Amino acid sequence: MHRPSFPNDRPWRRARVDNAMVAARCARVRTRSIKTETKDHLLRLALSMVDLTTLEGVDTTERVEALCRKALRPLSDRPDWPSTAAVCVYPNHVAAARRVLGPVGGPVKLASVATGFPAGQTPLATRLREVEQAVADGADEIDMVIDRGAFLAGRDADVFHEIVETKAACGAARLKVILETGELGTLDNVAAASRLAILAGADFIKTSTGKIQPAATMEVGLVMLEAIRETYLATGVQIGMKPAGGIRASKPALHWLVLVAETLGSDWMSPTWFRFGASSLVNDLLRQLVRRDEGIYPSPRRFSVD
Amino acid sequence: MTPPHELRLSGALDLAPAPERTPVHIPPRLGHFIDGAFVDGSDTFDTINPATGDVLAKVCAAGAEEVDAAVRAADRAFREVWGPMDGAARGKVLYRIARRMQERSRELAVLESMDNGKPIRESRDVDVPLAANHFFYYAGWADKLSYAVPGRTVRPLGVAAQVIPWNFPLLMMAWKLAPALAMGNTVVIKPAETTPLTARLLCEVFQEVGLPPGVVNVVNGAGATGGHLVGHPIPRKVAFTGSTGVGKRILASTAGSGKKVTLELGGKGANIVFADAALDQAVEGTINGIFFNQGHVCCAGSRLLLEESVAADFLGRLQRRMSTLRVGDPLDKNTDVGAINSERQLKVIQHYVDVGRNEGATVWQGSATALPKRGLFHLPTLLLDVDSTCTVAREEIFGPVLSVLTFRTPDEAIKKANDTEYGLSCGVWTEKTSKLFEVSHALNCGVVWANGYNLFDPASPFGGVRHSGFGREGGLAGLAPYLEVT
Description:
Shape of chain B: globular
Mean pLDDT of chain B: 97
CATH topology of chain A: TIM Barrel
Radius of gyration of chain A: 19 Å
Number of domains of chain A: 1
CATH topology of the largest domain in chain B: Aldehyde Dehydrogenase, Chain A, domain 1
Number of strands of chain B: 20
Number of helices of chain B: 14
Number of helices of chain A: 11
CATH superfamily of the largest domain in chain B: Aldehyde Dehydrogenase, Chain A, domain 1
Largest sheet of chain B: 7 strands, mixed
Oligomer: heterodimer
CATH superfamily of chain A: Aldolase class I
Structural class of chain B: alpha/beta
Distance between the termini of chain A: 39 Å
Number of strands of chain A: 8
Number of domains of chain B: 2
Low-confidence stretches of chain A: none
């Protein structure tokens, strides 16, 4: 496997962002009004893009199995509605999830947060071992966290190296690199970390672990999408995007899709290239879909909690 | 040259219609508002909805007698009521106007979009809130006039004659009225003949909040009405926003009359993008600079000055963003670029695009939507390979048309930016602060936006130099034109 070498001129550190105009652009996207057929279409698309996630200390095999069943069929009496893109679980639960989701290649992918999630503060060797185990147990995708301390201290080579090694340990699994933007402090850092992660081999870049606030703000998202755009236009390499943390309602989710459509275009409007890392979002999407379908808002109790 | 990999932006997002449905009342016939009452008039003409061509109302054109009645009502109100009134009491009325505008904001926005053609997103989020904010801001000055010019005594002037344009009908009315009224002046104002509707609604607001009769009088009509108003002997102050040609005529006609004059005229603003700018954000600023309000903005950034080393890169980014702009029904909440206000203006714009092409410019147009089949619309347009000698780099087009020039050094950028008869506004984009200050101070214009464009605030003075006019509106400086200082 080709391992990219560290570019000593650290080109990502030259990326420039203007906060005020990023905020203005996002505010403008939020004025987009999504109605009728467009709403139907985007709600279904959003549902098909969710990485249905459970990352709690109290997770049990039973809970993970239930989550997998929900991912396969989000609403039991609507078999024609799309399944979610993936489930996302701790490495310990990968094998159990794989049993429910069926063999690799099914409609719902299996993602795991390996690499000492969420802090990333364990030895690299341990993290790589964790990745290998998750892949061996059947994970299609690995969500890793970068070492924010190293990035903020300017030890870019360490961050780069860890991503390269993790990517190698993934084998055929797709690698999502979590920048934990809530700890990076500035949009300039987000722009730099995005480009670093992409050059080091990320298949996806992802905003957050969900354990730190702020998480997936649209401002951070736009800066990351711009990094993806630059990469594609310069090289033709398509990188995926995954906002995670804090997207709980349909309306912001649909505005995210507008942001993607207007920044990257139709090639990214698919679960192959765009994901929502979320749990409660699914129930709100279902609620809105039922409302579109039946004309009235259903009771929240119609949907299972997990 | 097309890059090897291009984004598929067109068709990435089909948006279903999202019309704003707030009902509005439009009287079939608009007269004038004189001495606190709506009065009928004669000599009617039509005001149309530029997006559909439908007639919205018949409007009366005020003759000399009606203008005289309005001026005399204003003079009486100045001497008997508004001038002598305690500043705090005047402020109270202005606050009430601002609050009532907020309460009726949706109606104001819908009327403005129907009459002017601007997208509801802008009338709702920019024009109307900003107009209310001007009243809020100047209401605060009403009881503090004695402190406005330390050590001097200030007095209101009397009757102000004001003539406003069609590009921001309500907002320009607020810019003109709020400082004049706060200082204790009274007003006769003439809205543009193509956009009289929001002025009518604002007069209803005046009645609702108890603005004393005669303090604000509105006369409708075109140039002839404006001539009667500006030439009337009673007003001590003339304020005009509009074209440089009309501004010159007003200045000539008021010469020697003792009237104080302020003019806010045209512009050919340069938006300067350096290679060290945050390029994606400079694109957004460029879009705001030229496509805001279909480019019908006196301070529009209608000349884009690009540092040559990033010109191709930047244009690619700009064209991609332009291809996501939605041109169409002004009342659709997703419309980015609305209708051109009048057929005459549309022809002016088309004429300039032809002139640009004939002088060697490459024309590039883009949008996410096709042009509507009826109504007055123009695609967002770039004129590439333009230089400073081209007509389209020198004359104000007043439409969604951006002339693109390049430069190599900051000195050249400054020289090109200042190479114009106008001097209203410029934008400078760089992440290097020393360059930002150096260039900004070298620009000969009234307003410079640093890493931004078309940003407005009631507390910030606005106005031009040279052929863009003189006098300031907004902020403390905006009081001066309406005060006599002794």
